[in-house]
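look at this:
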Amino acid sequence: MIRLVATFGLVFAIAHPARGDQEERAREVSVEQLILDLGDERFPVRINASHELWLRGEEAGEVLRRAAASDDPEVAIRAREVLRKIELGILPDSPPEVVRLVVAYDKASPDERVRIIRSLKQLGAWRQVLKIHELEKDPATLVQIAPEIKGVSVAAARELLAEEEPDLDEARRFLEMGRPEPAQLLSLADFHRMNGTLESELEKAASLQGEAGHLWRYALHAAAGNFLDAAREAEAIDMTLTAARLHLLAGDPIPWLRHAPVPHGEIPPAAIDAYRKAVERLWSGRLPSERFARVLADGVKHDLDDESWHSLTVLYALGLNDEADPLFARLSPVMAYYHFDSTERIDMALKALGLDPRNPDFGAAIDADFRAFLKDPDNSEVEQERLFALAGFLESRGLKKVLLDHYVGPLEQLGRKDEEIFIEALGELFSAYTRFPVATPVFPAVVGFAGEDDGRWRTALSTLFGDADVTHAVWESLDEFQPDLSPGHRLELLASLLGRVPGRAQLAADWWAWMEKKAAGAKELDQKAAYGTMLVLAVMNTDAERFLKLTASVREAGLQLSDVEGDYQFGGFEIMCLAAVDRWDEVAGHWARRAQALPGDPVTQAYLAGSLRRAGKPDEAAKADLKVDRLALGDTNAMRRIGQAYASAGEFDRAKEWWLRAAAEAVDEDGEFHYAALLLYEEAKFGGDWKLAASLGELYLLQQVMMGDTHDTPLPVVRGRIEVETARALARLDEDRERSIETLRRCHGMALSDGSMADYFFPAMRAVGLTKLHDEWFEHTWKAYKRVLERFPDSHNTMNTAAWTASRANRRLDEAEVLVTRALELLPRQAAYLDTLAEVWFARGNREKAIEWSDRAMLREPADDGLLRQHDRFVSGPFPLK
């Protein structure tokens, strides 16, 4: 605990003459004489000596320490008072409020101490906060103030480094203050990396002994990107998790598998330790044993048993899909259906719902389930779940007649019987949270239910589209727009305008023209409301082109976006839209204004740098890059967001560097590691860094297993294992070709009709020269999709998935174009489908057409960094290998 003696310090801080004049006069008297004057019998002399010693600062420190032990009580007390102020960084010209708060700290309660430190931070009294922390000895107090201390030295240094002429020495001194803890040392190490002094610091640190030496070398090596050296130093002082993380970044997940703790609050599977060992077997080239698989399978009993779900997760996470799939279907038929359907395994999906997979009688199954539902709504949960799932299947596969024939009548009957349960059913079939929205039977059922009852209409609309003001504003506008519009057409038009369904394109275009004309001629309040409604619709539709047109109209009307925002904030979306239409000068202008307001924020500087480069201003961008590098200072949260800022401008190589640094410099208690590692994992897959991808994939899978929950869907775990095994096989192809190819074969079989495999699998196969196997396996996949489309020819998602796979495999491009063109007829503004058509043209070697369709995709999803990456690839990237 700090002890402060506060007699006359505050008085002098407020009333003493200017510091510069005093310093000059004080230099005329020796420190030793001033110490003697502390015990002078004359009060003014004692006061003057105290103040002039204070002016000397650290220069008088050693003499004051000796004087603090003086036999003369007056000298000792005054020496301790002056010394403490010097140690705490209180200067004669410090603001009086800062002095008052520091002096009050010693006598404050624990809660008051936290508030004092918070107030000092708000005043920018960084040195005083750091000195308080450095001098505090009480363990309980240190724990309590720790959250407020975090980041203080970095904030202080950033203020200095953000200046046009940064004070590097003073910034370093701030970073050297405080306790030698990992996060603090990493900030200092990152400063040396930025300052070009990292190597010399490593040389000096080589001779440091003990824990302090290992800790400092760990920080320096981590900042330098020397992962294995940093891991070695961390292991020497029992920083086991830190070392394991660094090994992950070096491509070795085994230490992490052995030591990673279960996340706080999670109850892991009983088989967690066996899972860790089984994954080690996989990395040594051995599959899990049949006995182990049987033991896990025996643990899957019923859906109310958490351990059953845990065991199922472990099976899927080890790639034991053949064993897991039938158990999942038994455990939860409806959730298993969703899982099988999402990877185009139609027969298994239908079988899970109790249908004959080759000759399903949809009508009979629906009718039977509705009879049970209508008879006893409270005790027909299984039938209801099956009805909702099957409705989504029929809608997505284009079987609209079955929906109209077998859902509309029973839904109308339900509405007459029990309004509350009917509304709940609507929410299951078509709401913002519905897995597969089902409009075909729902809209006519709603029309029949609501009739002329405004209250029922409002309830139904709130259920279908949410109880937002925009829903009801647009609905009411349709009366004025076309009074004779039938209720059914009015409902369809509302859904189309809200971006929930395709269709009614011409009617929607007419409404937009009418609404824009109405807004232009409206009075101010009505005009603001009209523009606000239209802008919200443009955001909901992620329609960059329309949004920018509307923002121009708003400003032409003499308004600002802030005048029409209401509960919505449009500024961020506008930046994304400007980037999507290549108006990077305006994007850069936005970030330049932000950077001026937040000069010490490295993330803002990263957004500025990326946008300036896109705007064709590389020299200005380079200056912003320097500020980013200067201001990051080992802040893992900032470094992760810096990477995201660069990614938003399509600079994924820079993003990867920052995510790698964020992961390397994360400390044990820092959850940022997992966030940065996940971003890095995705980037490693895209860039073909297979060793890193395989290693980080195990981190992701272990996290999923520890959470032990596949109640929703095991698909992320299934795909995670396939991706890890694929990456590991590609990384080891040269050293163990036969085993690697067998692993790739197994991966392809596990993901035969899973479209996500197309992203990396087939391009990587060609890149490593496995073209013959590539063509053989692609044909198996293509035939699987064709079989689905023969049964369900209007399944637009299957069409797109098949076309995407073909485009990435650079095979059957003419057929792919036909399929994705048909998919776009059914869902005209789907960004993913537009991007698929762009990929088809790029695979053909037609850069111009690829860019044309990519432009359209970006207008539909301006916030998607992946589409920007694709666009840049189409503009200047090499054409795919044949």
DSSP finds 54 helices and no strands in the chain. Residues 771-791 form the longest helix (21 residues).
